[in-house]
């Protein structure tokens, strides 16, 4: 509407001959130009709808996946219903030597993302790729060295090593005690009652000499 007013003022300016009228019109012209400049940028409805479709409604972080490996590749399987119907450019994966990011755009009105940082070992960026299958995205990370990976990330490896160290003792009974303590600390009331009962019974048998000290 403001733009139409401005066009009309400009049209009148070309026809006005009296100085006073021209001054009034010039003032109005500047005023309209300033209003248009300060007006928030609004896009036509059809453009807004088109952008909404291309970007999807909102973004969902993918947490569930499966993985496998061969001599040359680490394979990560991500289940996404209907992903095979998307244009190929809507499924993007960016690789670095120790990470990858997956972005699936506008699948049933949503975007899906997944990030893997600190991969256990280096991968070849050039040799890595993604494949779109029925209801599944397969991310293929090409190993730099043909060796078996015990897990996917460095964090997983450290977590496993800590857990192993907690129970890997030279004394079997100590390892079992650590395990029982962990189960007791993390268990619900029913679990705690069960462990207490088993502990009392084992102590009674121990005192009668029916079983060795390590339960």
From TrEMBL:
Residues 138-215 form the SGS domain. PROSITE patterns: CS, SGS. Keywords: Acetylation, Cytoplasm, Nucleus, Phosphoprotein, Ubl conjugation pathway. Signal peptide: none annotated. GO terms for biological process: heart development. GO terms for cellular component: cytoplasm; nucleus. One of its GO terms (molecular function) is S100 protein binding. It is found in: Cytoplasm; Nucleus. It comes from the Eukaryota. Pfam families: CS (PF04969), SGS (PF05002), Siah-Interact_N (PF09032). The keyword Coiled coil does not apply. Residues 60-153 form the CS domain. PANTHER family: CALCYCLIN-BINDING PROTEIN, CALICYLIN BINDING PROTEIN. May be involved in calcium-dependent ubiquitination and subsequent proteasomal degradation of target proteins. Probably serves as a molecular bridge in ubiquitin E3 complexes. Participates in the ubiquitin-mediated degradation of beta-catenin (CTNNB1). This is Calcyclin-binding protein. The lineage of its organism: Eukaryota, Metazoa, Chordata, Craniata, Vertebrata.
């Amino acid at each position: 509407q403001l733009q139409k007013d401005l066009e009309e003022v400009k049209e009148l300016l070309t026809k006005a001959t009296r100085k006073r009228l021209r001054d009034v019109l010039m003032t109005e012209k500047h005023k309209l130009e300033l209003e248009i400049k300060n007006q928030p940028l609004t896009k036509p409805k059809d453009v807004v709808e088109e952008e909404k479709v291309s970007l999807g409604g909102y973004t969902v972080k993918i947490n569930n996946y499966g993985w496998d490996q061969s001599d040359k590749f680490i394979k990560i399987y991500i289940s996404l219903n209907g992903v095979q119907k998307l244009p190929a450019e809507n499924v993007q994966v960016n690789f670095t030597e120790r990470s990858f990011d997956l972005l699936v755009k506008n699948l049933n009105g949503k975007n899906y993302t997944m990030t893997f940082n600190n991969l256990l070992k280096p991968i070849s960026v050039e040799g890595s790729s993604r494949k779109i299958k029925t209801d599944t995205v397969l991310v293929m990370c090409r190993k730099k060295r043909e060796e078996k990976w015990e897990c996917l990330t460095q964090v997983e490896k450290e977590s496993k090593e800590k857990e192993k160290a907690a129970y890997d003792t030279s004394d079997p009974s100590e390892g079992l005690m650590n395990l029982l303590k962990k189960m007791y600390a993390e268990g619900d009331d029913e679990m705690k009652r069960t462990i207490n009962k088993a502990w009392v019974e084992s102590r009674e048998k121990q005192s009668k000499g029916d079983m060795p000290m390590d339960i």
